[in-house]
Amino acid sequence: MEKKKIQVLSVQNIPSPYRVDFYYYLQNRETEYDISFLYTAHNEDNRVWTIDETKLGNTHFLDAKVIKLKKEMDNHYIHLPFSIYRKLNELCPDVVISWEYNPAALLCYLWCVLHHKAFVHGTDGTLHSERNSGKLQRLSRRFIIGHAKTFLASSTKAKEKLMAWGAEEERIFISLLTENLEAYHRIADMANDREEKEPMGLLYVGSFIRRKGLDLLLNSLPYVKGNYQLHIVGNGSREERDKLMQQAQELGVQDRIVWKGFLEGEELLREYHDAAVFVLPTREDCFGLVLLEALGSGTPIVTSCYADGAYDIVEDGVTGFIVNPENPVEFAEAIDRLIGDPARLQEAGRRSIELSEKFDYSVTAKGYDAAIAHAVEVYRASGDRG
Length: 386
Description:
Order of helices and strands: EHEEEEHEHEHEHEHEHEHEHEHEHEHHH
Number of helices: 14
Structural class: alpha/beta
Strand order of the largest sheet: 3-2-1-6-7-8-9
């Protein structure tokens, strides 16, 4: 008689292209579990994403009420999934992986307790990205982390956060946040002529919101001694763009900047190919997937110490530098150390490709497998509810 597979349900707010691709990979392997996905909404109004809907296999959506709270550096969205309990009853999974500390996560935990199912707490957040959490947010973290038996972290910094809140290290499993890097590897395999180009290309990819720190990057440009041209890929409101362009004009660096707008697909890949150095000056990022894209394309990186994924992606001093973005001289000096040394650029690009292997789906999936196996083992061995 064929053994029945464990039924796993992963619950999040909205689908994102990088996770949809990875989840598609998880669903199409031979494992001891079947995994399905539940999203509380289709999208949020600050996301410009193209989702490959052919990869949304065994995926369910709720029609949650979404409340937007305007914050200083970014907007915050609260999803109120009133029908989630009914949906959980309908799907009746053996294991629920619920992400972060929102109302859906709390309801998922309570459902698992009442129905004697295994619960896994997943998180992208870090101590830095969650440093300004409010009282209710801290209470939900204390409750979920204090009661969960198994944890799934998307970065080393996310694991550190869980441990700081009391999670036992042996119960935490890391599945590094990742995306399909095949196209970026194709760029890296092309002839590496970056060191021969003048001016040297700098590349920024991201939005214009304050959190991303593009203004900090502009502040550093007057201190860059080498010959460079900065391509800015991304978009924002007219007010955000005008403010940044005015800042560039006042700093005397406007002639060194090309504003490319929002790009994707082959156009974006071309930007990575042509860049000598990728720059990310963010004030806060719990990961920073653009760093992974740069890594996969063999592009050396100068990144903010507040991009928490940098500590898994950048080999500091080898494939790039992790610096304080609020120190413009330090940021500029890191850029000069790369663009002023063609041999360093070439070696950094080569090493980047080697490091990108740990973000391959076959590697990152091991964290999911281990977390699910641990949750089932704990549940079956002890009878604990959750």
